[in-house]
Amino acid sequence: MNYRQTLHYLFEKLPMYQRVGAAAYKANLDNTIALANALGNPENKFRSIHVAGTNGKGSVSHILASVCMEAGLKTGLYTSPHLLDFRERIMLNGKMIPESTVIDFVQNNQKIIEQIQPSFFEITVIMAFAYFAHEKVDVAIIETGLGGRLDSTNIITPLASIITNISLEHEKLLGDSIEKIAKEKAGIIKKYTAVIIGEKKDSTKETFLSKAKETSSPLVFAEEQYAYNPHGIKDDQIDLELINLNTKAHFKLSCDLAGTYQGENICTCLTLFDTLKNELPISKDEILKGIANVKRNTSLRGRWEIMRKEPYMVFDISHNPVAITYMLEQLKSYTYNQLHIVFGMSDDKRIDDVLNLMPKEAIYYFAKPDVPRGMEAIKLQQNALTHHLMGESFVDVGEAIKASELNANKDDFILITGSAFVVADAMHFLNQ
């Protein structure tokens, strides 16, 4: 198989949650463990940091990887989903896994794959672990896919675990309350292994403390270690003042990820590096450089990504109420005449909770993202009407963007959001 045929095999033969939803979810680690055993347990051959949470885990993972790279560490990074290229999921020192490595992995292990019949995510996780082991990385940053306890990544024994925050998501799979979801995320906490909690909430605090006590794991709440104040918001970066709450020291830093909400993620990362100062001795200067150059080092995309100006066009993958709230708060820092929103969602999301937050003064361009899970544009439009959101439906994201560009004046603002798949479609459209 060539690379295209290999991807077709992975996408079409193996169930993929991003495409088909719950049908691809395996409520156990049996397949992942069987694959790992068959490949000599590559997950045990490198050091790792495990990152879970509802929002922010992708940004935290990329920030951690960027800092490790600035420190000269050979750094693996596993994240999901991808936007343009499958290989975005598996990175080494900011570069995607080679096409030839993907081809060789699938061809060399096709018999095992056919025998075990894993999901797309399960085989992708093991591919990443095998690649990182083969390349002898100094450390790998591993982002969970869905949940934590039963996530395929949860066969690693990391240096530390991070849980960014918790809100309602994937209730049919993870539980119908914050407490139940927190319990699933807490499943990544391992015995005698430090855990960093990004957001301290009354509804989840006891769950995390209880699990940490059960596993004899040191637990640190990042909010008790650092605080931040924005002191400059630009198109391509944020400037923050950080306060170390233990030493009372104040210092300033910049991050090339726009969005004041990144301050919370940065505090989480700083807490992680404080916690692992013996295992990962990284200087303050290297940490600040890593935070300043996340996009340059890791090619992270889709987080308040400004594509053009006059009119502004911004991509943002926010897809749940908490993320949408953060995104709209960022929007308030811009001045514009008319807001245009190209919008689509997956069919299994909390549609009314999201639509209730969306600006009523905007003109909407509803489109179905190009995945089976995508919500039909006409259905989204009809639901939006009940929330007094006005706009038209389009056959795809590209047509919606065309219409928004025709209607927008140079002092308007075009926001493309609602799903990572909407942003992916938009990127493909603009690339073409």
Give your account of this protein's structure.
The chain is an alpha/beta fold. It is built from 18 helices and 17 strands. α3 (30-38) packs parallel to α7, α4 packs across α11 (262-275) and α9 (178-185) packs parallel to α10 (202-214). Residues 17-22 have low confidence and may be disordered.
Our count of helices gives 18
**Numbering strands along the chain, what is their spatial order in the largest sheet?**
4-3-2-5-1-6-7-8
Regions with pLDDT < 50 over 5+ consecutive residues?
Answer: 17-22
Helix content: 25-40%
Gap from first CA to last CA: 26 Å
Largest sheet: 8 strands, mixed
Instruction: Using the CA coordinates, give the radius of gyration.
Output: 21 Å
Which outline best applies? globular
Proportion in β-strands: 15-25%
Structural class: alpha/beta
Mean pLDDT figure? 91
The count of DSSP E runs of length 2 or more, i.e. the number of strands, is: 17
Features:
432 residues, alpha/beta
Describe the SSE topology.
Elements: H1 3-13, H2 17-20, H3 30-38, E1 48-52, H4 57-70, E2 75-78, E3 90-92, E4 95-96, H5 99-108, H6 110-116, H7 120-135, E5 139-143, E6 160-163, H8 171-174, H9 178-185, E7 194-197, H10 202-214, E8 219-221, E9 226-233, E10 238-244, E11 250-255, H11 262-275, H12 284-292, H13 294-298, E12 305-308, E13 312-315, H14 321-331, E14 339-343, H15 351-355, E15 363-367, H16 377-385, E16 390-394, H17 397-407, E17 413-417, H18 420-431
Parallel strand pairs: 1-5, 1-6, 2-5, 6-7, 7-8, 13-17, 14-15, 14-17, 15-16
Antiparallel strand pairs: 2-3, 3-4, 9-10, 10-11, 12-13
